[in-house]
Amino acid sequence: MDFNNPKTFSRLFGLPMNALLYFLGVFPIVLLIYVSFTDWYPIGQQYFWDSHFIGARNFIDFLRDPLFGMSVLRTVIVVVVAITLEFVFGLILALLFVDRFPGKAIFVSIAVLPMMSVPAVTGYIFRMLFLYAGPVNDVLSAIAGTRVSVGWLTTGWLALVSVILMDVWQWTPLMFLILLSGLLALPQDPINAAYILGASKWQTFRHVMLPMMKTVMLIAVVIRTMEAIKLFDGVFLMTHGGPGYSTQTVSLYLYEIGFKYVRFGYTAAMAITVLLVLALFTRYVAIRPLRPKV
Amino acid sequence: MNRRAIGILRNLFRYVALVFVSLLALFPIYWMFSTSIKLANEWVATPSVWFPSKPVLLNYQFIFSMSYEYLIGRVPEEAAAFYPFSWASMKPIFDSLILSTSSTLIALFAGTLSAYVLSRYGRKGAPPPTFPLMYRMFPPVMVIIPVVIMYATLRLTDTYLGIIILYSTLTVPLVLWLMKSFFDEIPREIDEAAILDGCSLFGAFYRGVLPLIKAGLAVTGLFIFMLDWSDFMGVLLLGGRNVVTIPLKLAEYTSGHGELYGPMAAMGVIAVIPPLIFGILIQKYLVRGFTFGAVKA
After folding, report:
1. Does domain B89-290 sit in CATH 1.10.3720.10?
2. Residues of A in Cβ contact (< 8 Å) with B280
């Protein structure tokens, strides 16, 4: 072994990470594919090799499962609404912070605090905020003049609204930071040129700055979309998917089927399908703007 | 109106907007903190209590006093009188520290080596660059379900080793891309000069480049620590009895025996302190961290 040979050297250096990725990457996926074609139910059969091969029945079953369809729909609603709000608020915030002013550093630090909070804790905080006797209803009462008691967490669609608000509170700062660094990195010459040629502030923003921001905006939206699809911790602590099924996202549904009803075969079939769809999405849509130039 | 007046007005508008935003950002955190120092009858009240009438540390004493089973159905006021501090109650904090620290170190070690290879030698030998990226993008439930099945077979469920491996694997792609962005900022001439001076390839890395990216290593380490510290789903699915981290303990307080809002808030405050401090320390690099090094602030 010649460690000064670049090939050997790079193999050796790549080894630890490859080991991690293959240990938890390849083997479990193979196992997952096998289990998805069986009726493995760990309470009945202890090991996966005790289970019976049942062909594609799991896949057919879950595609007919209305709860699964609804959870996908809910996830899409949460992702689309939350990302739109985060993008709009993030952009407005970023525009507030473009030029220098006294106190800028402090205000930036305060504005990004939410994204550093532990998501599970955020879920718990918002649970308290949206209680019947919580501060959100207090504020609404103060505005309305009479006591309002909105059952945020006990009414189906309002619970979904609360979940969206939680995501918006926690992750608008990330959108803001990405867009701000995009705005600050813009070349100044075209902007100054536009002003000299007599463009108004809005025209400059709309026709000069926005087109140059395209890549950064795309990155911000893609990153947030990928993160939002993962949504679990906060919802789990805030509503537990309830009331009923009204805030059950895909992640929560998989958790429920897999760990409450321990139908591992069925869960595996769902997980594989979702993974495949997401993999295609990642491969052909999401990864493009992110792919570093190697 | 002259130009000066417009300028003042605009600044005024800006500051009003910023104060409003700051209030929105800070209020939920304030609410948790204030609940953590409230007496039991003020946790949930109509109308709710915005300022604790008598700030107390009872909720903190409660979570550090005794294992949870002894406290079912008791309010903190009693608990503090009857139960003294116990080391057993520190377990979630120690577990969180052990898991986050060791996973961060492993991920940092494995990811940095690969990042160096990727930055200097291209794809040869290094892990395929987009495969780990996708790993990071999948919802953790889907990544963890097969791991749960595998761990059940290998008897790694609810062990420190199993969860450390999981955390390291989930965060190592981020280390790879972050560290690569730091390595790319160091000119190749440094390596070449070191090799000309008689260093081996390893020496060029260890004595030439590594000392120059200490800051990058620290930033990446803190960022990964924040992510591991924040994990909830991993321990929910793979831990439980033997391994109990802070977020898991927090979830335990909600289930069953009525909601212990005060102690939960106290636990929440403890949970968010490290990420808040680290986050502010590496604020400049947060964008780079979350965008896999694609956007540099």
Report:
1. yes
2. 109, 116
